[in-house]
Each structure stands twice: as C-alpha cells, then as structure tokens.
Amino acid sequence: QLYGNENIINSDINKPSNEETNNGPFCYVNVANRNNIQKCIVENKIDWLVHYSALLSAVGEQNLQLAMQVNIEGFQNAIDVAKQQRLRIFCPSTIGAFGADSPRNPTPDVTIQRPRTIYGVSKVYMELLGEYYHHRFGVDFRSLRYPGIISTEMPGGGTTDYAIQMFYAALQTGKYKCYLRKDTRMPMMYLPDCIRATTEILQAPNEALKMRTYNVTAMSFTPEELVDEIRKYVPHFEVSYDPDDRQAIADSWPEVFDDSNARRDWGWQHSYDLPAMAEEMITLIKAQTEESGNIAKAAAI
Predict the structure, then answer these.
(1) CA distances (Å), origin 163, targets 102, 168, 189
(2) Of residues 130, 122, 34, 46, the one with CA closest to residue 81
(3) Tens digit of pLDDT for each residue in 226-274?
C-alpha cells in the first residue's frame, strides 16, 4: 500500500502461490547461498533488505543443524551483502533472545540475555553482529524484538502458537488442549501492529535511532486470560492444560516487554489491545470457517 506491489520483491525457496505471484515480483533466494542473495539484490536494484528467514523456537530445537544454517549462516550472508551493496537491512529479533536470567517483568532493551534455545542464541548473534556491522562498517542495520505475533495465518512452530490455535479450535471444535500452563504470561502483538511497527522503524530517520534493536509490544496475557476473552464470543469453549517441553521455553522468556525506548525515539504506538485483537480474530476466522462449513455449534456469533 505504501510503496506499490511492483517495488516489493518477495523471495522464498518454494514456488510462489498464484496469489503471491499476483502480488508482485518474485525471486528464488536460498539464504544459505550468498551469491543467490546478491544476484536477486543486484538484478532488482534493491536498496532495503528485509530478512525474515528463520526456524522458530520449537522447530529449531528439533532440527539444530538446519536452524544454525538458516538463522546464523543465513543472516551472515544477508548482512555481508548489505555491507557490499550499501543496503538498509532489517532483521527481526524476538522475546526468545532473552533467557531465564533476564528480568521478566518488565524486560528492558538492554539487559542480560543468555537464551536457552538455538533460536534465541541465533537472534542474539544477529543483534550483536548487526550492531557491530553498523559501528564498524556503517551498515544501516535495524531490528525489532517481536513478541508473540497473532494473525489468522496458521502458526509455524513457535512457543506462542497457542494464541492462534485457540481461536481456530474455539470456532471449529469448541475444545482445545493447551501445551502451556494457564498462568503463563508472555508479550503479544496483533499482525497489523507488527507490520506497522516494522514499516515505521524502516522509515525512521537514522539520527532518531538511539539503538539498533528495540523491544516492541502491544499486550501481555496468559492462556487463561485469552480463553476468557474468547468465551465472550464462544461461551462454551472448553480448554484443558497439559504443559509439554515448550513450557520450559516460555518460562525463560519475558512476561512483559518494556518498549518505552521505541515509543520515545521513533513514536511507536500500538493500536490493538487484547479485546480489540480478539474481536477481529473471531470475525475473520469465523468468516473463513463458515466458508469451509466447519463452524462449531458453540459459536455465539
């Protein structure tokens, strides 16, 4: 909407869908291959590189070598190309960049980190390498530590996935078994706010940025609090709790993010709190499930 589809080059290692093809130009890019990245950058005269390639927390623990190749080597390749081609580079970090020794409520921008997942370790590496390239070579590196991101897209193997799965379960079956304790609090953000935060830090004047990596958040809630919100629309939604190995990951992550630096330095303000996010998610997913004829009788709207 801001720049026009023709000015956004999407990339992946998989063939694009018809919808993705219609949304604008596409490049095949394997982040493990530096020349592959460089070819796409040069041929398309790209000046901003937004690097999202990563294996998330739970999936990364199941495939350590691939996580290291994609998350660590992939970012190394991307930032080397950014340095050579004088690009502005954005790569997201995560609440998972913190660990059990970090203050959890609130968690500031600068504090001890020491994560205990390869996903978190790779993101700390990314933050520090990006900052080093900025100070050593003048690379315009920018990053946001995302909280759990909630959207209508099915999740991809993260510890905060329950916050999406619950909505689908409520509307499709009326039942859900949560893999975290009901009192597990974590920072969250609805996708439209995440997109806007990313756009705003990319557009921010370089002189406004007092640091290269910022916390951003919109809300913090527990599974139990999300259930209470969903029950406003699906009153008979049934949830049980059976914590698995993801509980230990969640217990090492922040409960509440301090994003006061982002709000001060470049004017970050979220638009969606928990009630607003839940209302929109219910509306959108209900429309999707009605199309497929798979709507739970318990649904109230």
Answers:
(1) 23, 10, 10
(2) 34
(3) 999 999 999 999 999 999 999 999 999 999 999 999 999 999 999 999 9
Amino acid letter, residue 259: D
pLDDT of residue 293: 66
Which residue bears the tokens 């509440």? Answer: 256
Can you tell me which residue has the tokens 């499930």? Answer: 289
- Is 119 marked active-site? yes
3, 28, 52, 119: which is the annotated catalytic residue? 119
Assigned token pair, 88: 């502005």
Task: Check residue 257 and report its DSSP letter.
Answer: B
Per the prediction, the chain carries an average pLDDT of: 94
Centre a 10 Å sphere on the Cβ of residue 154 and count the other Cβ atoms it contains.
9
Whose structure tokens read 């994560």?
A: 115
- What is the rounded distance in angstroms from the CA atom of residue 163 to the CA atom of residue 244? 16
Tell me the Ramachandran region of residue 4: left when phi exceeds 0, alpha when psi lies from -120 to 50, beta otherwise.
left
pLDDT 10s digits, 130-160: 999 999 999 999 999 999 999 999 887 889 9
Looking at residues 12-38, what average pLDDT do you find? Answer: 91
The span from the CA of 201 to the CA of 211, in Å, is 11
User: Which residues sit opposite 150 in a β-bridge?
Assistant: 190
pLDDT at 89 over 90: yes
What's the CA gap between 164 and 221, in Å, rounded?
A: 13
- Compute how many other C-beta atoms are within 10 angstroms of the C-beta atom of residue 173: 13
> Around Cβ 222, how many Cβ atoms within 10 Å?
16
pTM of whole model > 0.90? yes
Spatial contact of 55 and 71, defined as CB atoms under 8 Å apart: yes
How far is it, in rounded angstroms, from Cα 200 to Cα 216? Answer: 12
Q: Where are the alpha helices (DSSP H) in 138-220?
A: 162-172, 191-203
